[in-house]
## 1
Amino acid sequence: MSADKSPSLSVSVLNMDFTRLAESIKAVEEAGADFLHLDIMDGHFVDNISFGPDIVKAVSSVTSVPIHTHLMIENPEKFIERFFESGSDTVTLHVETLNSGNSSILRMNRIGVSLNPDIPVSRLEPYLEFSESVLVMSVFAGFGGQEFIPESLDRISELYRIRETRNYGFRISVDGGINPVTAAECVKAGADEVVAGSYISRAEDPAEALKKIRTALSG
Ligand code: DX5
Ligand code: ZN
């Protein structure tokens, strides 16, 4: 992690009870979530459909926690502006959805890049120099509630080493299967931030679950 900052905790709303979304968001806000993580799935890039900009807008109207939007969609360039207009503070897209026609969007401010567990870190090479953040998927994108893939730790370390060696500025976030144990492992491997979904939203006491991850993050 960066020397000057303690690791951040972002909370994914994907597995929250959508009939009580505002309430659940308030609870994690009060418990000290640093960011909210909103997963956008289009049924093409991943085999699931979640929600779109209107829900992002609704979420942003009930919270002051900064919103990180994770686009698991094809042709992300078509929608980025709408997600910013809806209240996203940052938008992350997948390297798998980039091509020669749209990859320049990564040079925009407040854009991050993500990659699935089967994509070599080297695929990020052309972009790392100007990337603000890298979201390492520690499960295959598409669903909450999956188990952390242990090999992700090597990928975090690889990115950490690249950043150190070349003096790049991107933040390293990790998404999928985060609980207090995996959160601590990610930080040890070099992560600046973890994204936790079902460990918090499916807990009997989500605020307590969040605090357990927070404690694990601070070592
Ligand atoms: C998976 C999503 C993740 C997910 C995390 O496609 O990108 O953000 O919501 O949820 P958990 O913590 O349940 O793996
Ligand atoms: Zn996500």
## 2
Amino acid sequence: MSENLIIVAAGSGKRMGAALPKQFLQLAGKPILVHTMEKFLKHNSEIKITVVLNEEYVQFWDELSRTLNLKIVHHVVSGGAERFHSVKNGLDSILANDGVVAIHDAVRPLVSLKTIETCFNIARERGNAVPVIHPADSLRIASENGSSAVERSKYRLVQTPQCFEINVLRRAFEQPYQSSFTDDASVLEAMGERINLVEGNRENIKITDPSDLRMAEALIQD
Ligand code: C5P
């Protein structure tokens, strides 16, 4: 069965404070997005890659790919207002009617091969797989009256790639958008599906601000 990958890279990256969206910033001599694509190709050199970009950056990426002489086969589609709409555009562009699709944040180049493989395998066996890690810090819930401690062992931090049987995910994305849809698992869950959690890797950080980029520079050298 074929493996498909949708890399979502249509965010504006405002938190980074850089001129370019963070997926195009250099990490160890290459754009973050290139590292992310190469990691999945290491897992499966035949994986079909769709990259979802903000419309304003489609031409920029085309030119950058030529400058870099990028040989990675992929197709590009335009994103939407929220991550949900970007994933939906990516899904609509895939022709496959069976197999598993992974949705991955472009800004997580440090996902491990083990995490990718586990997610695909469990999704094939059980319909979906979502990588998580245990929080290392204590957690508190904030309210208008202050805050109170919560039981850390009950919580998980959610990463990507989130992998799904493609047809089930397509049905989930027919639902109208809700602001609670911050990832793909939340979209599937709203349709009544049970989510299978698998172990992610702690280095699989979402590069969001300049300190994350410095951390990623250190980790990618390992
Ligand atoms: O900012 P946020 O945490 O939602 O970003 C997660 C991922 O979703 C990023 O890779 C970002 O580029 C992508 N995204 C997108 N389309 C949007 C918003 C975010 O593809 N409209």
